[in-house]
Amino acid sequence: MVQLRQNGNFKYITILFFVSLFLVLPQIYEQGIVLNFDSLFHLNRFYEAMMNLKTGNFSTISLYGFTSVGRIVSSVYGQGFSFICGMLLLVLRNWISFQVVLSFLILFISGLGMYCLGKESKLSNKFSLISSLLYFGCFETNSFTFGTSMTGLSSMILPWIIICGLRLGTREKGQVNILMLAFWMGVALNSHNFTALLSAVVLTPFLIIGFIRSTERKKLLFDLGIAILITIFLSLNIFYNIFSIMRENHLITVMPKMELGFRGAFFSINNSASGMDIGLQNSLLFIAQICYVCFSWKNLNNQIGKLNKIMTILGVVFLIFSSRLIPWTILGKLFPVLQSTIQMPSRFIVVANVCFALGVALSLSALNRSNILSLHGEVVTNIILIIFLVLSFSRQEQFLYGGMQNWVDNAYSNFSSNYYFGEDKEQFKFLSRKKGVSYLVTEAQTTLPDYLPLKRKLTNQELIKLNPSEKYKNEVLSIPKGIFEKRITEDKKIAVTWTEKETPKERIVPIIVYKQTKLELNGQRLTKNDFDTTEIGALKLKGTQGENTLLVTYQEGKFSSIIYKITIFSWIALLLAFAVKFTLKCKKRELSSEKNSQLREM
What span, in angstroms and rounded, lies between the C-alpha atoms of 151 and 197? Predict the structure, then answer.
C-alpha cells in the first residue's frame, strides 16, 4: 500500500478532500433530496438496515423498508453496504445529511483510489493528483451523488482493484497483495453484484500477464487462492442467501433490457446526463490519449511508457465494450442472460475512465520528463488542463442540481415513472422534512420489481409483457390507506390486520410471499393450499368475517446464523490483520530510522 503519510502526500490528499466537498456543495446549498431513477429503491434498503440496527430485529425479508410487504432485497444485493449506510443514517437521522455525507465519502475514496493508483504507477504527487482530478470529472464517478446510482460505487472500487491488478501484472514476480485484494473484492461483493463481476473481469488480463512474466508461478497461484478463499469468507452471507433463496424461488433479478445497442456509450459534443453520453471533455480526453500512445508507440519503452501502453489498450478495450460498436442487441437475443446482467453496456466505461485518467497522467509525466515541452508549452498545457477540469467539475455540479430539481420545484410529475406517491403528494416535500426519515420511504415508493418471486420461470420477452412494475403498483402499492394496518412484533413478524365487514371473499393482501415465507392467520398456520399468490408473489387470501390478523415471517435456513457469524468474524479478523501489518511496518520504519541516525553519528 502506498505510504500516504510520506513525501508530502498529505497536502495532495487535502486537495482531494476539498474537491470532493466542492462536488457536493449544490446539495448542501439547496438542502434538497436527490430522487432519481433508482434512488428510492436504495433508500428503502438503507432505511431497512437502519431499523434492523436500531431495533435488533434482523430478517431475510424486509420488515421496515418497502412498506413492510416482506420483500427480499438486501439479503441478495449489497447487504454489507446496506448496513454501512444504515449505521450512517442511524447517526445522522436526516436524508439530506445522509446523502451529502455518503456522496462525499464515495467521491473522496474514489479520488484517493486514483491517487494511490498513480503512486503505484510511479507517478509523482503532482501527476497522481492530476489523475484523480481527471477522474473526478467523469460522469460515472459522480453518478451516486446525483442519481444514487451503483455505478458510482463501481467508480469508487475499481481504482483499488486495478492497484491489485498492477501488482499482479507489472512486477517481475507477480505479487498478490492478499489482504488488499480480498478486502476490495469483499467490498465489491457486499456492495454491488455487477461491480464484483466487473472487478473479476478487470483482474483477468493482469493475472494472465503476471502469470506469464512470473518467476514464482506456484507462489502467485497459491497467494491468489488464499485471497479468493478470504474473499469467499467475507462474502459467505451473500453466496449463501443467493443459493438458498434462488434455489427455491423464480426471482426477477433485474428487469431485462431488450435493445442493448441503444444503451451503449458514444462520443459527443454535448453534456447530457444520460449516462451513455461520454461528453465533450471526456471525448477529447480519450481521443487525445489514444492518439498520443499510437503516435509515440515506439518511444514508450521505459517502465512508465510500457504501463501507459497497457492502460491505454485496456481503456480502449473497455471503451469498445461500452460502446455501440459491439452488436449488443444481436448478442442479447442470442444470449438472453446478457439482457438481465449487463443491462446497459455503457457501464463498462467505468474501467475506461480509470485507465484513461491514469494514462493521461502518465503521458503528461512522460512529456514533462522528456523536456519536449518548452516553458511556454508547459504553461499552455497547464492552462488547457485547468480549463478542462473547470468545465468537467461544472458539468458534474449541474448534474447534481438536475438531480434535485424536481424536489426543489415540487415537480413530482417529473419524477421517475418507477415512483408511486400516496395521498399527501402535494405536502410531500414539507412533510418529509417534518416527519423524519420514515416518511420519505412510506409516502413515496418505488415500483421497481427487483427480486420479486414469479409463479414460474419466464423468458425475458414474457417478463416484459407481464410488466411486473405495473402489477406491483396496482396489487401492492395502490391499496388505499386504512384498509390494512401493519406493525412489527417483538419476535420479528409482520402483523397485518384488517376487517371483513361483509361475507369474506378472496382479496389481495399487500404481502409478498416466497417459498420460505410462513403465514399465520388468526392463530392458525396456513399451508400452501390455504392461499394463492399473484404472478408477482402478492398474497391472495380469504379471511374471516370480523377482524383478521395475519402474521408473516421467514423461515431462515438452518445454517443462516452460523454463516453470518463466520462472515462477521472474517471481516473483524481481516481488519485486525491490517492493523497488525500497519503496526509492524511502523515499527520497522522506526527501527530503520534509528539505525540510520546511529550510523550518521558514527
Answer: 13
d(CA 220, CA 241): 31
> What totals of helices (H) and strands (E) does the chain contain, helices first?
23, 12
Euclidean distance between CA atoms 401 and 408, whole angstroms: 9
**Amino acid letter, 183:** F
Q: What b/e readout covers 453-463, taking b as 16+ CB neighbours within 10 angstroms?
A: bbeeebebeeb
The 3-state secondary structure of 317-328 reads: HHHHHHECCCCH
Distance (Å, rounded) from C-alpha 419 to C-alpha 446?
A: 5
DSSP single-letter state for residue 75:
G
Phi, psi at residue 275, to the nearest 5°?
Answer: 85, -15
CA dist 190 and 150 (Å) reads 12
262 vs 330: CA distance, rounded Å = 12
Q: Nine-digit cell at 170?
A: 507489472
Tell me the Cα Rg of the chain.
Answer: 26
CA-to-CA separations, 342 to 260, 317, 337, 347, 351, in angstroms, rounded:
9, 16, 8, 8, 14
Threshold 0.70, pTM exceeds:
yes
- Hey, what's the cell of 415? 419524477
Residue type, 287: I
Residues near 373 by Cβ (< 8 Å), separated by ≥ 6? 367, 381
**Do residues 260 and 218 lie in contact, with contact meaning Cβ atoms separated by under 8 Å?**
no
Instruction: Give the pLDDT of residue 416.
Output: 53
What is the per-residue pLDDT for 276? 77
Closest alpha carbon to 432 in 601, 282, 484, 422: 422
Helix (H, G, I), strand (E, B) or coil at 602: coil
pLDDT, tens only, 167-212: 888 766 667 889 999 999 999 999 999 999 999 999 999 999 888 8
Upper half-sphere CA count for residue 30 (Cβ side, 13 Å): 20
Supply 84's cell numbers.
454501512
Give the model's pLDDT for residue 2. Answer: 47
More confident residue, 582 or 409: 582
Residues 62 and 552 sit within 8 Å (Cβ to Cβ): no
The answer to whether 395 touches 281, Cβ cutoff 8 Å, is yes
Number of residues that make up the chain: 602
Q: What is the mean pLDDT of the chain?
A: 87
